[in-house]
C-alpha cells in the first residue's frame, strides 16, 4: 500500500534569514509538540564554512488513538533525519526516514529549501513524501490515513514555525543575514566556483564574447517595486506573478516583447489567480496584438473626421484615486450614424485606441503620483438614451467590442459611473450586462434621472468637486463633443443595410404560416431569444408571465415585420385557463371583467408596419402578466407578422445593481414603464 504526497510553497524571506531561523527549531519547538527530542548523531562542516551535514535521531510522540497505541505497544517512534546545508549555493536539503517499524512500514520525506531564481528575498520550499505500508498488524488502512493527516499538518505548520523564529531573530535585533562569502585566503572550491558562476548569471554579467548570460527581467520584482507599481499583494500572489512571468519567458512562441508586470497582474486577477488559465489567455492576447499591430496603434491611428466632429467621448482629468477619467455621453451618440460612417471595424479600432490611451495614461498617473494606479474610470452619461440606441446592428457591434476589450484589456476598468440613467435603461442593461465579466460588472455605480438632486454629491465621493463636468451640475468645462445626429452625407457603409435585408429574408423563411412561434434568422445574433408568429385578421397572440418575484422588471422588444398590430400589457388576478382558440383572447371569456380581475397596465399602443417597439414595466404584484398583440386586419401581402422577445430582470439584480434607479419605477401606473419606437 503506497501513498505519495507533494507540496510547493514560497516564503517571503531571504534564504539566508531562513537558514539561520531554521537552526533554532532544534532540538524542540513549541509549535510541534509531537517532536519530543532531536539528538545529533553526527555533525560535519567544511573547512571554509560553506557546507554542513548534520544527522539527527528524532523522537516523536505517537499521535494516534489510545487503543491503537496499546495494540502496537509503543508511545514514541524514532526517525532519522539528514540535513545538508549549502551556504554557498543557498540550499538546504532534508531527508527523513523512519527507524521504528522499518520492516513493516517505510516512510520517506524529502524537503528542499532554495533561493528564488528571480528574487533573492524569497525562499522556495519543495516537499515530497512517500508512505509504503507492507504489513502493520492489520491496521494498514488506518495507518495510511494517520500518515496523510500527519503529513498535511506538518506541511501547514512549516511556514508558521519559520515565521515564528524569524520574528524571534527580529526581536533580538537581527533583521538581515548576509550571504556567505569564502574566506579571503581560502582556495576556491568547485562548489564556490559554481556559486560564483551562478551569481554572474543572475546578474547578467557579460562573458568573453560580449553576450549576457542569464535572462533575468529588466526590472527586479522586489518589495519596493511592488509597493510603488503593483500595490499590496500577498506572498502567494507575488509568487504567481513571478511564475507567470517565467512561463512567458520560457514559452516556445516568438514573443518579441514581454508584457509588463502590471499587464501580467491584470490577467492573473481576471482569471482569479489561476496561472495556467492566465497564461493561455495572455498568450492569445499577445498573438492578437502582434497580428493586428496594436503596439503601433497610438502612433499610426488617424482619427476620422466624423469622430472628431461627432463622437461624444474624451478624456477628462483624474478621479480621487488617480485614475484617468474617460467621459462617454452615450445618450448623445448617433450609433447608427457612426456605424454607417466608419463601419464596425472603424468603431472597434476607435475603441481599441481609447483603451491604449487609457493604459498609457494609467502608467503616466502612477509615475506622477509615485503610487500604484492600475486602471481607469469611465463616466457614462445616459441623458438622451432611447430605444434607437438598441438598434440591432449597433448592439451587435457593442457586444463585439465588449468581447474584444474583455479578452485583451482585463482589469483596466477600475470604476464605471453611470449617470442620468433613464427608465428605459434596464432593457439596455439586461442585454449588455450578460456579456460583461462579473468582476467588471461589480464596479458599476448607477445614478438615475430621479437622483438628479443627489447625483453631484454622489459623484463627489469619487471625483473632486471642481472637476465634475458642467453638464452634471459641476463647474468644469470639458473637451467632450456633445454628439448629435451625423449627417447622412458622411455615410459610407452599405453593408449594414445589406445585413438587415438578409436578416429580413431569413426571418421571412422562419415562419410556418399558421400563426405559431418559430425560430428565425435573428437567433444567431440573439441566442435564440426572438420568436416569430403570423396573425390573421382578428387573431391575437398572448404571452403569459406568472410572476412570483415582486419588483422584478419585465422588458420586451418586438418588430412589426408586416401589417399593423395593437399591443397591450395586462395584469390578471385570477388563474388563466388553457388557451384553445387563437382568435379568442382570455379577456373575451365571460368570467373576465376589466377592473375586477384584470387590469390594463399599459395603454394600448398602435404599431404600424416595420416599426420597432421596446418597453419595460416593474411587476409590483404576484399576479399573471399578459403581453397581448391583436391583428385588426391584414394586407394583400399576407398575415401580419410579429417578431418578439421578452425577458425578466429579477428583483435581486434590479435592486442590487441599480438601487438608485428604483425611484424611476416607483408606481404601477404608466410612469412605471417606458415604450419607445
From TrEMBL:
<dbReference type="InterPro" id="IPR006797">
    <property type="entry name" value="PRELI/MSF1_dom"/>
</dbReference>
<dbReference type="InterPro" id="IPR036865">
    <property type="entry name" value="CRAL-TRIO_dom_sf"/>
</dbReference>
<feature type="domain" description="CRAL-TRIO">
    <location>
        <begin position="303"/>
        <end position="480"/>
    </location>
</feature>
<dbReference type="InterPro" id="IPR051064">
    <property type="entry name" value="SEC14/CRAL-TRIO_domain"/>
</dbReference>
<feature type="region of interest" description="Disordered">
    <location>
        <begin position="498"/>
        <end position="525"/>
    </location>
</feature>
<feature type="domain" description="PRELI/MSF1">
    <location>
        <begin position="1"/>
        <end position="174"/>
    </location>
</feature>
<dbReference type="Pfam" id="PF03765">
    <property type="entry name" value="CRAL_TRIO_N"/>
</dbReference>
<dbReference type="InterPro" id="IPR036273">
    <property type="entry name" value="CRAL/TRIO_N_dom_sf"/>
</dbReference>
<dbReference type="InterPro" id="IPR001251">
    <property type="entry name" value="CRAL-TRIO_dom"/>
</dbReference>
<dbReference type="Pfam" id="PF04707">
    <property type="entry name" value="PRELI"/>
</dbReference>
<protein>
    <recommendedName>
        <fullName>CRAL-TRIO domain-containing protein</fullName>
    </recommendedName>
</protein>
<dbReference type="GO" id="GO:0005737">
    <property type="term" value="C:cytoplasm"/>
</dbReference>
<dbReference type="InterPro" id="IPR036598">
    <property type="entry name" value="GOLD_dom_sf"/>
</dbReference>
<dbReference type="InterPro" id="IPR011074">
    <property type="entry name" value="CRAL/TRIO_N_dom"/>
</dbReference>
<dbReference type="Pfam" id="PF00650">
    <property type="entry name" value="CRAL_TRIO"/>
</dbReference>
